[in-house]
């Protein structure tokens, strides 16, 4: 019998500082088969002004590229597409403007990911595309940032993202495209200074092989190959030779090196300076190039999530342990929140399913701030969840978690809620209400199971039904719920309690 079911296709888009990349793959058994790659030079980072706002020209270039990519994604389900934005949108104060306009062009959420998350995904992409299972150092020099990772198999152990990239270093050290020994030395020294704080730890940890990924290191490798180094291996000596060749030219647009494309010329000297610094700081002997990068990491993790435990679960558990969370209480609140939310959102769609998962993690971590102090612990919890390094979470997800725990108790100052891009405030309101009720219902921190509780929701009006006579034996809980009614009322919400 012939199986006519079409293989599942997934796609990942990397919104980089210099280029946008899209890769589409077919899921074949336990592996991925890449079926198309698309790349467009967008120069997004060059549109950042002195106030860290993207200019309209850069925004339009990015939107035009996404419009082109969206044609290839016609008919793709939302759970089969992942879009990650990196350094430039992390930095841009008006990133939300770009994302809002992009939503009208490409109907998939755009995640702005932290630097360490970018590093982890780059490592994952490299690890999946390399046959070696030994300890690896992976270096990726992008347009706005450089990621450095040491890992083994598919697990990253050391993760760093530094604010140095070929576009930003070109602007800072090669003004008006001028090349000189002084500018090359200054760019290299600046990068070495950035690496100073981590170099010792990386050298001490060590690695068996060093691998470079993405455009800058690929371009350097191609120039070396065309210059006679057919093995494509990058060494410190070859980088110095390459630097000497670059210094024979006075302007970046005059660069005439075999293997160097015209669109890579403007940022090539800056990229070579940064890689020189990486070799010096970490005392690297040699480096090979890997085809794997961020977009491959996104693809493999997307597929892995259907077969393996989510890395975010491991992150949440590790954070709970780090901050000595009372896991019995956290589990009680989490179970109650999930029970209530199942009644409120009985048939959630994809976005609401993701929000339900964030609600569970928020419940698990709602008391991390107690490790700082009890007064205002909900605010301390929000700060930790917003600013901690949390592998697997993008900025939006961390913002949602921080918002949930910030509003788990006390007054509902909803005007203090942050701007969101993937979700809207109205998406978070049911989660906030659910978590508040779960926290209040478990306020006694008792091992006794809660009675049968029913909840109905109609927008801002919620009704919670408790067993008849519960108030007589739960006077403290009754007082807490009365206080909760007052908080809701001041926020324009209504909580009705029946028995």
From TrEMBL:
Annotated ranges, domain Ppx/GppA phosphatase C-terminal: 311-485
Catalytic class of the enzyme: hydrolase
Its EC number(s): 3.6.1.11
Pfam families: Ppx-GppA (PF02541), Ppx-GppA_III (PF21447)
Subcellular location(s) per record: Cell membrane
Reactions catalysed according to its record: [phosphate](n) + H2O = [phosphate](n-1) + phosphate + H(+)
Origin: domain of life: Bacteria
MF-aspect GO terms: exopolyphosphatase activity
Keywords for this protein: Cell membrane, Hydrolase, Membrane
Annotated ranges, domain Ppx/GppA phosphatase N-terminal: 23-305
Gene3D superfamilies reported in the protein's UniProt record: 3.30.420.40, Exopolyphosphatase. Domain 2, Hypothetical protein af1432
Required cofactor names: Mg(2+)
Record flagged with keyword Hydrolase: yes
Chief location of this protein within or outside the cell: membrane
Membrane topology, from the record: Peripheral membrane protein
Keyword Acetylation: no
Quaternary structure and interacting proteins, as annotated: Homodimer.
Stated family: Belongs to the GppA/Ppx family.
Name under which the protein is recorded: Exopolyphosphatase
Name of the gene this protein is made from: ppx
